[in-house]
Specification:
This protein starts with a helix and ends with a helix. Helix content is 56%, strand content 8%. α1 runs antiparallel to α2 (24-33) and α3 runs parallel beside α5. A hairpin with a 5-residue loop joins β2 (49-53) and β3 (59-60). By secondary structure, it is mainly α. The protein has one domain. The protein has a three-stranded antiparallel β-sheet. The chain is globular. Mean pLDDT is 77; it is low at 1-30. The structure holds zinc ion. It comes from Ambispora leptoticha.
């Protein structure tokens, strides 16, 4: 319950707590909830735990909630459809929460690192869930879009590295 993801969510909530105190409620339970679909193995440091999928026995040496959710939503072959559907909705809900937090950023010149971390996670999630090839991140139109949003996206190799970290580690 003290994973990095959870801490960064709390930080982001604190930043926007003036406009919403309710949202923090959405972070904690979601974070814990994913673990009821996985077998929690031994701790791997930094609040990460080994995770095994209940349905297909896929194993992550360091289970990351976002990847675990995306697995159930999109990738798990044995997961019942209603469970996949549930996690797809959850991921969309979370993306909406992040979007509403970033509204506070319209008057700033660059994105605070806590929010950048959230955006990076959303980006990774969007890329994985939509099946977008990682080299699309280098597309000039995509780059231009991110530039207008004042967001400095991770490089192609960083992006695929995160996923490898999460799925192969
Ligand atoms: Zn699975």
């Amino acid at each position: 319950m003290t994973s990095l993801e959870n801490e960064s969510l709390d930080d982001a909530s604190a930043i926007s707590s003036t406009c919403s105190t309710k949202r923090q409620k959405n972070c904690g339970p979601n974070f814990d909830e994913i673990w009821s679909f996985y077998i929690k193995g031994p701790g791997r440091g930094n609040g990460h735990y080994k995770a095994s999928c209940h349905y297909c026995s896929s194993i992550w040496e360091r289970g990351k909630p976002q990847v675990m959710k995306a697995h159930l939503a999109n990738h798990c072959k044995n997961c019942p459809e209603n469970i996949s559907d549930y996690w797809r909705r959850k991921l969309i809900e979370e993306a909406d929460t992040i979007r509403s937090r970033t509204i506070d950023l319209q008057n700033v010149d660059c994105i605070p690192s806590e929010i950048k971390c959230q955006l990076d996670q959303s980006l990774l999630k969007a890329w994985v869930m939509a099946g977008i090839p990682f080299n699309v991140i280098k597309n000039p139109f995509i780059k231009d879009l991110f530039k207008k949003l004042k967001y400095d996206p991770p490089s192609r190799s960083t992006l695929s590295g995160w996923l490898l970290d999460a799925e192969v580690a």
